[in-house]
Amino acid sequence: MHSLANKRILVTGASSAIGAQIARDILLLGGQVLGTFRTAHATQIEQLSADDSFESVYWDALNEPDFLGVSSAFDGWVHCVGTIHPQPIKYLNEAGNERLFGVNYFSATHMATALVSKNLLKPGASVVFISSVSSHYPYRGGASYAASKAALETFAKALALELSAKKIRVNTIVCGLVNTPIYQASVAVHSPAEVQRMKEKYPLGIGEPSDVSMPCVFLLSDNSRWMTGAQLLLDGGLMLNA
Ligand SMILES: NC(=O)c1ccc[n+]([C@@H]2O[C@H](COP(=O)([O-])OP(=O)(O)OC[C@H]3O[C@@H](n4cnc5c(N)ncnc54)[C@H](OP(=O)(O)O)[C@@H]3O)[C@@H](O)[C@H]2O)c1
To answer: Is 0.85 surpassed by the pTM of this model?
Structure first.
């Protein structure tokens, strides 16, 4: 239903569970993907590279995206890079904070400026940012992560406003827990009983990467042409218990 035929889409963090699934679904729907990775020989990137419509490029989100100099314009951009660094406020330090904001927030602002100033987003393009429910409901030890995602969400709205004249749309997906390496790392710091309590808060259970990628391809497609500045909540019903 949601054709992405002939659409060229930039997916940052295509080496991640969620980013890789989004890239796979874009390819399935006929699109082309330029996916970024940071870790060399990432399994997901190697698998995706079997498809001729997939290209990959190394990018460390803590640096400027210099690869954009050689790229042609995009019909879409999904910003999926993200990192966590559990730190109770008592132990917050500047380096940890800078890293979290660098990857989760400034990577998006730098990329947006680079793409817009170089006219690398075509009129009518669709941009999707991946955020977290913690931006609205922070958790203990996740102050900086939550704040960086809240900043990302507000930035997305401002970007939507500024790009609307070109009919470029910007929306955010706000996720609850999804079963990926970032989730495994965050549950590793909790006891099994705490993890169980966390899971029980999700009436539909925690998500899988495809639960995020399907709504994402809808947002990338022309079927969502009247949506911009929106926040799509994907949380398996978590907020029903908030
Ligand atoms: N899983 C969840 O429960 C959950 C919930 C809400 C929101 N999210 C968001 O969903 C997105 C994807 O996360 P995920 O769960 O799939 O986690 P993940 O597997 O850990 O993926 C993180 C991605 O970010 C990339 N990345 C991290 N630091 C980077 C850096 N300095 N430069 C460039 N790339 C960097 C990683 O690249 P490499 O692997 O190549 O290093 C990887 O592609 C993130 O934005 C996350 O905040 C996840």
So the answer is: yes
